[in-house]
Specification:
Strand content: 15-25%
Largest sheet: 9 strands, mixed
Strand order of the largest sheet: 4-8-9-12-3-13-14-15-16
Helix content: 25-40%
Number of helices: 18
Low-confidence stretches: 1-55
Radius of gyration: 31 Å
């Protein structure tokens, strides 16, 4: 029966339709699920809904928050970039056709046994060390038992009382535009577990289909301490986790693919109160900006209820963020703590780490975002420069390679943050996809700084290097772009421009000194941009002010 069911699911990817629990169609049994009423999100009761001004939400929030503080904690699921799933040999590729990467183990069929993918242990130790956690040299897997249609086994393999890492912290810097400053947020625990499948809800809402491709995909759950106090702090915490896992190479961290999923717990309390308020969980956060807005809305909603004497209407529940309406709505109420009836996973051995194994991984860790930011700061870069360069691992590597060729640090940062970043944005390419190399950027900076070419010519060369490749020296020779630094030659061009524009010369000498820019532009045009700007301006000023 099990093998027939498995073959049927491979042949017919969607196997949950309206009819009986097991139905025979063309002699192939398949399962299905039907509900008389499906509702993904229930609107709040209109009578009890709190109105929050949308005219200026920041002003409203700041005013309401004068007597209250928010308490925010985040549970983050990171999907690990292993070649195969956690306990079987099935690969996982985002966007694959439903039920095309499954096997009897993924499906939880009777008689199957899990085999642990050792890469998960390595990745978990990397993340635990990077988050400054205490590692458990002896940990174990547990069964977390609950029912849901996309959980075929009826339980999830996770870790309960002995997580692989706990008691850590993460450091980050807030963006300058949000006030800046350094923050440290505590990490409660990091544990390994497997993902569940995915429900695909029918358009008319009468039935759902199950895709088990994601079932068994390895995850790390990272649980923060309730240390955050605002939406921006929470969003920056999540962004720093994304940077961290990308730097470590353990996950691509793409929120739009579900590789980084954050569930936020929000409560508020009067300032000075030590007890936490009633916790509300917020889901459906698909970007960091959505997270920021959702948290700020939820804080405003709860504070408004407190200030109106209706704090009893804040109940422990899960709410969804509606991006279109810019508000949270009730998904389901939580009557109390769930009883998952954890017990040790009998089909998997304990996870035992040697100190040598941990030390080898510790020594292999790359320079992490926080250390990179501090190093860039010591170079004299502004915090705005530091945050931009360290945000992306590949951009940081490009910058480091450029200054490794003795390029001026500030000039290299300016070129990368300015013209190169603009080109990548317009062309929708990454720094790895442009044809400019760090060596040629260093050569370009050196050529401009040494006076071989002007900054204007440098920009023209830069765009050709990014789009077509080549070398700086080769392009300078090919296009005859060497800067004119001979004073006699520049003086001849200045004299010619002044003689051809007597009216403007008279106006300049009559007090319209802004015309200097006009004359400089004409000379640069005549020289095809090759005249040395400093030499040009010096000679031009002398000629303009010479009334003899």
């Amino acid at each position: 029966m099990a093998s027939v069911l498995f073959r049927g699911i491979q042949t017919h990817p969607f196997l949950l339709y309206r009819s009986a629990l097991f139905t025979t169609k063309k002699a192939v049994p398949y399962c299905r699920m039907e509900c008389t009423q499906v509702q993904t999100a229930t609107q709040d009761n209109p009578k009890s809904q709190t109105k929050i001004s949308s005219t200026n939400p920041n002003k409203t929030l700041n005013k309401l928050m004068e007597n209250y503080e928010a308490i925010i904690g985040i549970e983050t699921h990171v999907q690990l970039s292993t070649l195969t799933k956690a306990f079987c040999n099935c690969p996982y590729n985002y966007g694959s056709q439903p039920n095309t990467s499954i096997c009897p183990i993924c499906m939880g069929l009777p008689g199957t046994l899990p085999v642990l993918n050792s890469k998960i242990i390595e990745f978990a130790v990397k993340v635990g060390l990077a988050l400054n956690c205490n590692l458990s040299l002896n940990s174990k897997f547990d069964r977390k038992q609950y029912f849901y249609p996309d959980l075929p086994k009826g339980y999830q393999i996770s870790q309960f009382d002995v997580p692989i890492a706990s008691g850590g912290f993460i450091d980050l810097d807030l963006p300058v535009e949000f006030g800046g400053g350094h923050r440290r947020f505590g990490i409660t625990r990091v544990h390994m577990e497997e993902d569940a499948g995915k429900l695909l809800h029918a358009g008319e809402g009468s039935y759902s289909q199950v895709d088990l491709n994601r079932a068994g995909v390895p995850l790390l759950e990272i649980v923060s301490e309730p240390d955050m106090r605002s939406g921006i702090e929470a969003a920056e915490y999540a962004a720093e986790l994304q940077r961290l896992v990308r730097y470590l190479g353990v996950s691509n961290g793409n929120m739009q693919e579900g590789s980084l999923r954050c569930d936020v717990n929000v409560s508020v309390r009067p300032i000075g109160q030590s007890e936490f308020g009633t916790k509300v969980e917020v889901k459906n956060l698909n970007s960091f900006s959505s997270m920021n807005r959702a948290i700020d809305y939820e804080i405003s909603r709860q504070v408004a209820l407190h200030s109106q004497g209706q704090c009893d209407q804040i109940v422990q529940e899960t709410r969804l963020w509606e991006e279109g309406a810019q508000r949270t709505v009730t998904m389901r109420k939580k009557e109390g703590l769930s009883d998952y009836r954890y017990f040790p996973e009998p089909d998997l051995p304990e996870v035992i780490l040697s100190q040598e194994y941990v030390d080898n991984i510790r020594n292999s860790l790359p320079e992490l975002p926080e250390k990179k930011r501090r190093r860039y700061e010591k170079m004299g870069l502004s915090m705005q420069d530091v945050l931009f360069l360290a945000n992306d691992l590949n951009v940081a590597a490009f910058f480091d390679a450029t200054i490794g060729k003795d390029a001026d640090v500030k000039l290299a940062a300016n070129w990368i943050m300015g013209d190169i970043a603009a080109y990548m944005k317009n062309e929708r390419v990454s720094v790895d996809e442009i044809k400019l190399t760090p060596e040629e950027l260093a050569e370009l900076i050196s050529s401009i700084k040494g006076g071989t070419i002007s900054g204007k010519i440098g920009k023209e060369i830069l765009f050709e290097l990014m789009s077509k490749g080549g070398t700086v020296k080769g392009l300078i020779e090919e296009k005859d772009l060497v800067q004119i630094v001979d004073p006699v030659e520049v003086e001849k061009m200045v004299d010619k421009v002044l003689s051809e524009n007597p009216k403007q010369l008279q106006q300049y000498r009559g007090g319209k000194t802004k015309l200097q820019g006009f004359f400089a532009g004409q000379v640069m045009k005549a020289s095809k941009g090759k005249a040395n700007p400093a030499l040009l301006n010096k000679i031009l000023l002398e000629k303009l002010n010479d009334k003899s």
